[in-house]
Amino acid sequence: MIVPVRRVLHRLMSFFRSGRAEDELAREIDSHLQLLEDKFLARGMTSEEARQAARRAFGGVEQVKEHQRDARSFRSLDHWWLDVKLGVRMLIQHPGLTLVGGLGVAVAVAIATSTFSIIHTLRNPALPLDEGGRVVAIQNWDASANNPERRILHDFVTWRDELKSVQPIGAFRIVWRNLIASGGQPELVRVAEMSPSGFRVARVPPLLGRYLVDGDEREAAPEVLVIGSEVWRTRFASDPAIVGRTLQLGHISYSIVGVMPEGFAFPVNDRFWIPLRAEPSRYQRRTGPDISVFGRLAAGATLESAQSELTRIAQQIAVALPKTHEHLRPLVSPYTYPFFDMEQPENAVALHVVQALVILLLVVVSVNVAILVYARTATRQSEIAVRSALGASRGRIVAQLFVEALVLSTAAAAAGVALTAFALGELEAGLLRLSIQFPFWMIFRLSTGAVVYVLALAVLAAAIVGVVPALKATGPGVQTGLRIIGAGGSGMRLGRTWTVLIVAQVAFAVALLPTALFHAWDSIRAGIADPGPAAREFLTARVAIDRAIPPNAAIDTTERQRRERDRNRFAEMERRLKAEPEVADVTFALSVPGEEPTVWIEAEGVRMPPASQSEASGYAVRAGTFGHEARFNRVDVDFFDAFDVPILAGRAFNAGDAGPAADAIIVNRTFAERIVGDGEVLGRRIRYVGRSGDARPEHVEFERWYEIVGLVSDFPARPTDARVVDAKIYHPSIPGEIVPITLAMRVRGDAPATFAGRLREIAASVDANLQLRDVMSMDEALRKEQHLLRLLAAALALLTLSVVLLSAAGIYALMSFTVAQRRREIGIRAALGADPRRIVGAIFSRALGQLAIGAVLGVTAAVFADGVSGGDLMEGNGAIVLPLVSLFMVMVGLLAALGPARRGLRINPTEALREP
Q1: How far apart are CA 679 and CA 529, in angstroms?
Q2: Is cis: bond before 740, omega within 30 of 0?
Q3: What is the pTM of this model?
Q4: Would you kindly state where each structural domain of the chain is located, as residue ranges?
């Protein structure tokens, strides 16, 4: 065993020190020759005779050197290294192929790798805690509703007391509170109400002070708070005496008892922790707050044993309480699963489909590059034939061409990895700009698995790009290349295969490029759209009310009292805002203009759309009933005046329209044109027949007829999607009737966002429980969305550019090589006196036929796909893009045929007759 290892080490050293090994070998051979020469001199030979006899006795010097080189080195590595250098040389010699093919493979690899990284993060999250894999989530699944049941306060207490396989067990819920600091502006922060056992589950000791303890859960206990190190550092300047200081959240002042270390954000993504105080005796079963339950598997316990014990406990509860627990099924799962359950069948299938599509994209791109490589390989047919005649095996030649392709794919994969790293970084930054935060354990980065995946993609691309053309080039007819050396022809013949490839290439390009160009242009246009003066003048905020009750405060005993209190809060807030000199106008709405929820309606006297049209968009409304799609909003009675939206017909809302029995609505111009058509819109009635998930039940009343009393102009015309102007319905409302609600105010000056701080101060002075979210100008909100749209546009443009280049280059290579194959025929016809115009016409008619068939198939596929998907490619400018792309691809093919045709006409007839 020692000898082989020593031999391998010796070979490795010789491989990396080949120059020194060659010198040592030469000296050793010279010494052997000298010893033999001395021996023959001693026998009486002359110096010349002794030298010749020594060489005869020793044998061939070069053969001995080769034998020794084989013995001391890895000959296969030498061959591979030579192939790598040849591959680099070929990349340099063919820059067009390198750039076009490399760009296509790089973009495909970047898309595939980004998708893999995101899916891998979602499917294989690792909880960064001590033995994080043993932290589990416990939930009740409602089998009748097929949804999780989170009102499980009573069950949580039972599990905590009886479930021995999971200990400790904790619970949490997320609330939002106004952080009110002296001398600073109020800030809405996320707070985790968590049972103290949660810190024991996490097993992370505090940085300062203590974390929550069981005694903090008692209702009579002092109000205490634990903060994260980031809050301690930014708000308290890392004050070492922070423990004992107070912090006000809403109406309640908390005493800070501890600081958690950097990076701790359990249970989701949190920096503030207060004790969960929810007494089960106050609530009936399946009522009360929504909570999430978690725990840590006990020593020796497994998910299976914990599930078995939990099921037994649940069966006992179901027997005792069949009314509430008959359909509840408790589940134990890894902690991260309930957040993004990628193991659900529908989610798993969707992820597999996405991954398959991106790999298919890579395969398609690689096939395009393979076509280019095949056309280049055809020009090397004579070289391949000579190597084969000199004894090179087919496997050796295929291996060489594979390594050449591997060099290209590896370089492209490296560029793809760089693109992936950039894209993931921009994705994370874009989500932060939109205030979207993922759980603390979800970090979208290139992992070791992603690097291995990239290498596998590079090998796959190299196999398609290099091996497929190589197998064809080294087929049974390879020796025919020896007969055409110097004749300028090629022994490679594909016959109908070339025709099929040309037709398929054109069809693929025509079918896919218009959609890519269409969406890329839409994203670019939306990404640079001017939001308009209204967006620049208005500051918006989402206003909600924290229902937390301060100690010793009066409690609203009825829903009527609560609504009255809400109306008073909003009325006072509106009054104070209008008193500010910077504020020109104030209004309220259910949703930010342009982001209204979708509903489906039935209009009196208007025929309902066909079922297929509604089904195409993925929404089936009531059983057997389908409706017109529209957008829905509730607005203040002076909403249109505040935004300077003109009334085109009828009247605006008045105070009498805002009562619960009022049925007056206003619609926009697009509603009248798209749904009513040429009929009279005023006085017509509508009712709701369906809603999307965004429209909550309390905002839409079914089976009730509403009368249209006014018609307004379109507002806004969604600058982030300039093609889409939605049909909209407006209902009158008063502030406080619906919570949460969107506040919009016109601010004087150039930067309405500068008033955001003052807005928070006014809201806090009205009521510390008034919560403001997403405080920003309409322009700022649009810009955040536009940033992601520009990234999407850049990705689509890069993908489109790579596909265009690959498709054009592929068609050019195919047509060029096809015509080049007919050089002998062209030369003979020219020698026999055929009219050059007829020859060229015959060539172009055949080429045009192939290109036209491909274009027709591509157009048909594009139109069919657009119709099935319910897209709008054939509307507006989209109807022009499709024929333009078809014409472009046909022109590329004809230009590709022009060069070889002209060269064919210049062939010497004698040379043409000598070609096979």
Answers
A1: 34
A2: yes
A3: 0.67
A4: 2-73, 76-125+344-492, 132-339, 535-779
